[in-house]
Amino acid sequence: MRNRRLRTDLVDKAVWNEVCRLTRASRRFEQEYHRRLLPKKCTEALYGLEEQIGRLRQGLSRLIASYIEGFIDKTEFKPRIMQIRDGSSGWKNSGNKIKD
């Protein structure tokens, strides 16, 4: 199969016409720009939230280990674990909002 030759002057003219059409419709151009940026921003935000949730899980594990080993008693343990669980659910809710 042989490649056909293209007239570059016609291709250049077609590309230039499309560029001109897009710049005249600047609102459409701006919308496309933002549409392409949005997934990147969401991904970065989700990555940050996942890091926070990971830190909360590590903190929860350390807290439980401290309680089991007797470094903290039940009166200290309960409020701290509730605080971590509340924070965790808040971060998870934020992640769900970004995903949607």
Write the layout of secondary structure elements.
Blueprint: H1 8-24, H2 26-68, H3 74-99
Helix pairs in contact: 2-3
Q: Strand content of the residues, in percent?
A: under 5%
Low-confidence stretches: none
Tell me, briefly, the overall form: rod-shaped
Number of separate strands: 0
Radius of gyration: 27 Å
Q: What class do helices, strands and sheet pairing give?
A: mainly alpha
Helix content: over 70%
Mean pLDDT: 78
Number of domains: 1
Identify the quaternary structure here: single chain
Q: Write down the secondary-structure element order.
A: HHH
Q: Report on the biggest sheet.
A: none
Terminal Cα separation, in Å?
Answer: 48 Å
Number of helices: 3
Structure commentary:
This protein is mostly helical and 100 residues long. The protein has one domain (8-99). The chain is 86% helix and 0% strand. It contains 3 helices and no strands. It has helices spanning 8-24, 26-68, 74-99.
Give descriptors for this structure.
3 helices, 100 residues, 86% helix, mainly alpha
Write a short abstract of this structure.
This protein has one domain.
